[in-house]
Amino acid sequence: MNATQDAISRTNRVFYELEQINSDYKELSITVRSYVITGDSMDLRHRDTIKSRIEASTDFLETTLLDSLSLAYLDALTEALNTRNETFGEEVIKLRKERGFREAQAFYSENDDQELIVRNIPNLTQNIKGRLAVLLDERVKLSELNAKKTVYVIVLGTLISLGLVFFVIFIFIQDQKKISLHLNEIEQKKAELQVLTNQLQSHNARPLNFSHLTSHNLRSPVNNLNSLLHLYKESQEPSEKSLFFGHIETVTRHLAETLNELMEALKIQEENAIDREWLDFEEIFQKTIETFSADILMSGALVTRDYAKVKKVEYNRSYLESIMLNLLSNAIKYKAHDRVPQVHFETFISGGSIGLTVRDNGQGIDLEKYGEKLFGLNNTFHGHAEGKGVGLYLIKTQLASQGGSISTKSVVGEGSEFKVVLF
What domain of life does the native source organism fall in (predicted)? Predict the structure, then answer.
């Protein structure tokens, strides 16, 4: 197992232990609450078991996290867990044993630890995940450096090959009867050189494409998570809080899955291959909808789909998720201000090509003015604060690597239609 595989394995295990700590702390709080109500000693034994699991998880993280900043975040997480357990938990249990249900219940209500469960503990675990994402970015930069070294080696090999070609030409040109043979060999070498050049360009572009993929595809779920946390904080009804908390858990799970998929994509990039698998359009669509649940709720957007013509496709998972995520993100981000946003996804098959059409009723794009720049890097056309000019460029780059393409029809003030040919 090479260094990259080790890093992926350790990161996956760290994410699992962090999610386990979140889950165990919720269960710890529920167990204390149950003991206040019932006074059953079984709750106390169960509480001790949960505490042991949390200690085992933090011990593992202490031995696995080698970065000083990650360890500092872990110390803050451990301190929050210990402080809450030793003060709130022990005090409630003591009151229940010595003074009974009423005083323990009153103290529990006054010092309810839902804020710690919903915000503090998840925020501290998210800090650790964020730091690991930074370390992953550093690994990508190192991969780019290695790619440049590879470029130099290939260029040197190309120059040597050209030297050999010219030497062969010089030797054989002395004999006029073999001129035709020499010309054929020259054309063959030129073709080989072109193939080598294309491979070099593709290899050198992959680290940059992966960097854009990582930064851009993580931005939307993180922004959506922040919106859900804001809605949770502002809501007053317990039913609303429960609804938003469920969305927060779903988005957090998808964020962890996205990180895992991106790390797997990094492994594939280093192995100089693009992995494909059979994907269900409905599954990718549902994940995209859940990722943008906060934006859909706040905008009131109506998002529909029709996958009757093509239900499944053999494609790269990270690329298909990125394409659907960016097109939905743009449709909501650049919605019209005077009507409810409507977005429709529909698959199609034309000849031997499979594709996806995405229509919206948003602001539209002036194609006469911006058409040539539409799919360029860092080009924005609506002045939106969150617009970075990366999404459409990333889609075009990913499709081109698979032999696909993207085109658009748009009317200002009415909306846009993007036609994506996957291959």
Answer: Bacteria
